[in-house]
């Protein structure tokens, strides 16, 4: 923490300043848009960008992460608050801040308990499915804002502005970069130009709206904004607190997952070390900060963090500069913030989440592992059919289900000796000699509760198809750990084989595994021997049993 | 299914008949006691033993499993129904049957979908903790029945009968076997004699109660029992159905886990093959059968199944005989069933669940793996503090948490060459030579979403402490699978190393792993080579990079 400050060099400053400015300009329309997704007044999105950026800079683990409002977390916030208060009411605002406080507390506690390994509960295909499902839900919800009415109805001036903004943003996303580069702009600068398109579109739409008085023609705008910085306001019933516990846990979990995946991408680019426990603490502090400024749950955003990095951010100083600029924007006259037309903001949301509809993971998984691809599609379908909260649970269950399913079919090879050598290989892949009185099996998996029964069943099967076996040798080259469940499984196998007059032997047990086994009764109870190598077992076990 | 009937031999009949009789005699008091635990009239426990035994015999996978009421499932039933109806009302009875129907349907569906691998979601220590916690909850709830009042109050005649029954049962459990064997009874027969003690105690208590008219003195009895066999009665509101969905899922899950662990123990003793999908179908049919006869959720019981096996059961015919005997007992005059004193039944429950308070798993885990021991204690504590339903969730989360936590610390060894040989070993355990321009790492785990980030971070760490590295070789001897998440992780590692001018090579990739990798873009994008062996990588990678 703050180690970067001690190592700060002057050469880093220019990059941090330019990144700070670019991210602030990106954050204003994005924060406002994601506040809308959360069912909150747009200005709350800016409140939720200042203290969180600052606190993450002080406590977080990634050098270039940008923390603030994010589409999926905003959707989860709206889902959590919908049954408790009406959007736009004072209670809704208070509950949003409370939710940020509670998920911040959860994150902080997890960080202090050092349980950052929780980030590994989601597989990537499942995360991708979750993101795709959420993106579609968010885009669908914005259609009526973009068109100024529920389909098939629409409000012509609103729809015209919404669709024009959408087209402008799509053009910027798909062609602006190439045009700028062709005009001689450096690739990085061109990239950053593209990222500022939402700001420009919103400014242009506001100018149009004011110039032609479109508000009078019925185009909705963001509405009155209180000037100055907000304060904390938490005073609702304990029933409210209780009903926010589960959403706070789910939001805290996803906040962490989303932020970690952004931070990991950047850490790999910078070859920097990431600490998931500090990440939890940074996010916890950021969310508590968001609550203190009347905001809502926030997280690290891959799109903003990538821009921060690309715009030259070297250290968290960039985020501190962003926070300072946003605070300045809020204490300056904020009347203009009331005039932003909602259809244009909706268009920025739709285009932003289109960027999350990334299908390359699906494509890779489909070719590489049909099971993972199915889990991806099932998670996306689950989010669409049952909502984003159920989606988190579905995601965890599918990730773990895939894992347990794979574990339930461990790879076990029957080994034979390559004639005249001391090498033992899978008899299905190599011509190798075997003995009818001895069965040699190599278990290609760590032994744990998820595969212990499958392994025992598979061994029974092999013994049934090798009925003359008097001695069974388990070759443990690929076994790096044996948990307590598997220890019981091995003991029961030993008992069962003993009853049937078959010896059980182990070979090539790894050092750490053997050290652990010595803490149990297993070696003493073993109805056989532990050999250093498969060859020693082959030679050492007499065929005259 | 029914394959055993085709292979039936006359010699099997004697064993099946004696087991059928013994289990029926054990099941009458046990079924009644567990119905009490579920908050139901005791006779319902006998209803829930007939069709389930029969249907499991026809559809189940284990030859000697005895299916019927079981303590933990009864506790879960009571927990599920408590908020919906008062124990003793007609609605309560109807809802109990509905719960059996719904969990039966869940089990059947899971069996038909062939997702029996779900049994592996609980580790053994967690299952042991769950059992211990449930046993304590069940025993505590029986104390007031045993004493005829809530402590510190008690009803003297009830307490006298309860405590006398308890002492008799404890004596039988601890000493009767040895006494019988000393008197010349065969060990198996002595064992079975011990198991019939509950029947004898209940009969003696009933005789005493009737003889001395203890009912008039205030000793509670089981109460009026409708004669004849019951029928199905399911006609409640859809709100009731909906509120039973979650309990039905949890009960279905535990039904399966408990039954599988009983069946596995027996299958290992008999060296028979168990099919978890048939087990699901058998349990599904049994629970639907229980519902059809006005019963409640049932499962395979390890204690009864062990007796069935010990008493000579060779095939499911034993269970069919048990079912026939129980049905006969019900159509015979059943007036006597109304007279059983509850304190004696409570004593049988307490002694039965004492048998579930088995601490050897805790003892082994404490010595062998402190993490597993902690998970056991946390699950037991969770059941006691938050109830049996929360306990199931806690159990799954702790099992999976332990797994993910272990995965997040994969074993990775830096390899060196044993001078003058082609053998490569962990430099921490063997004196081996290394090259400053080349880092050789052996990853001792299958690569999947749970460890992909940990592996990448560890590799980055090693590269930081070996700054002169120009080529990184990953030795894949212990890697039997790479999931989609890990494929992405490897691709990102490759990208990152390429950016920093470091080559990434693989060695000793297993056949099946290589076959799968060929379905991806990874081999083509690899900034390095794939070597057959570590030695070939050592020789093939030039130090003049």
UniProtKB/TrEMBL annotation, chains A, B:
Its membrane topology: Multi-pass membrane protein
Gene3D superfamilies in the cross-refs: STAS domain
Keywords, sorted A to Z: Membrane, Transmembrane, Transmembrane helix
Keyword Metal-binding recorded: no
Predominant localisation class: membrane
Domain STAS as annotated: residue spans: 428-545
Superkingdom as given in the UniProt entry: Bacteria
GO cellular component, one term: membrane
Protein name: STAS domain-containing protein
Organism, scientific name: Massilia polaris
Higher taxonomy: Bacteria, Pseudomonadati, Pseudomonadota, Betaproteobacteria, Burkholderiales
């Amino acid at each position: 923490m703050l180690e970067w400050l001690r190592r700060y060099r002057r050469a880093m400053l220019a990059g941090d300043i330019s990144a700070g400015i670019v991210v602030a300009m990106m954050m204003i329309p994005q924060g406002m848009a994601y506040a809308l997704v959360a069912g909150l007044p747009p200005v709350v999105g800016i409140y939720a960008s200042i203290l969180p950026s600052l606190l993450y800079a002080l406590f977080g683990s990634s050098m270039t992460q940008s923390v603030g409002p994010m589409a999926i977390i905003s959707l989860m916030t709206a889902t959590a608050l919908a049954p408790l208060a009406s959007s736009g009411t004072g209670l809704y605002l208070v509950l949003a801040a409370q939710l940020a406080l509670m998920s911040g507390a959860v994150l902080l506690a997890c960080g202090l308990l050092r349980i950052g390994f929780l980030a590994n509960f989601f597989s990537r295909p499942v995360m991708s499915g979750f993101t795709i499902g959420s993106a579609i839900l968010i885009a669908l919800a914005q259609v009526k804002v973009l068109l100024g009415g529920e389909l098939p109805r629409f409000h012509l001036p609103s729809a015209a502005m919404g669709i024009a903004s959408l087209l402008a943003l799509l053009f910027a996303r798909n062609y602006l970069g190439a045009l700028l580069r062709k005009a001689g702009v450096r690739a990085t600068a061109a990239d950053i130009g593209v990222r500022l398109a939402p700001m420009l579109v919103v400014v242009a739409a506001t100018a149009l709206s004011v110039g032609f008085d479109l508000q009078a023609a019925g185009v909705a705008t963001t509405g009155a904004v209180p000037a100055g910085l907000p304060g904390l306001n938490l005073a609702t019933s304990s029933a409210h607190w209780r009903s926010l516990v589960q959403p706070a846990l789910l939001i805290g979990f996803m906040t962490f997952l989303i932020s970690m995946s952004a931070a990991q991408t950047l850490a790999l680019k910078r070859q920097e070390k990431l600490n998931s426990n500090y990440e939890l603490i940074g996010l916890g502090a950021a969310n508590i900060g968001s609550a203190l400024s009347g905001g809502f749950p926030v997280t690290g955003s891959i799109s903003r963090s990538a821009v921060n990095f690309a715009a030259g951010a070297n250290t968290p100083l960039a985020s501190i500069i962003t926070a300072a600029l946003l605070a300045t924007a809020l204490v300056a006259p904020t009347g203009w913030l009331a005039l932003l037309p909602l259809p244009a903001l909706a268009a920025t949301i739709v285009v932003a989440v289109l960027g999350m509809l990334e299908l390359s993971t699906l494509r890779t998984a489909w070719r590489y592992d049909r099971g993972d691809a199915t889990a991806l599609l099932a998670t996306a379908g689950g989010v669409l059919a049952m909502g984003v909260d159920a989606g988190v649970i579905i995601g965890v269950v599918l990730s773990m289900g895939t894992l347990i399913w794979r574990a339930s079919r461990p790879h076990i090879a029957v080994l034979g000796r390559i004639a005249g050598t001391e090498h033992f290989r899978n008899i299905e892949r190599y011509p190798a000699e075997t003995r009818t009185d001895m069965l040699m099996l190599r278990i290609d998996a760590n032994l744990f509760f998820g595969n212990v029964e499958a392994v025992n069943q598979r061994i029974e099967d092999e013994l049934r198809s090798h009925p003359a076996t008097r001695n069974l040798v388990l070759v443990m080259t690929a076994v790096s750990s044996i948990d307590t469940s598997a220890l019981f499984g091995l003991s029961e196998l030993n008992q069962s084989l003993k009853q049937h007059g078959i010896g059980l032997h182990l070979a090539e047990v790894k050092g750490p595994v053997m050290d652990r086994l010595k803490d149990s009764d297993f070696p003493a109870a073993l109805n056989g021997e532990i050999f250093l190598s498969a060859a020693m077992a082959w030679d050492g076990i007499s065929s005259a049993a």
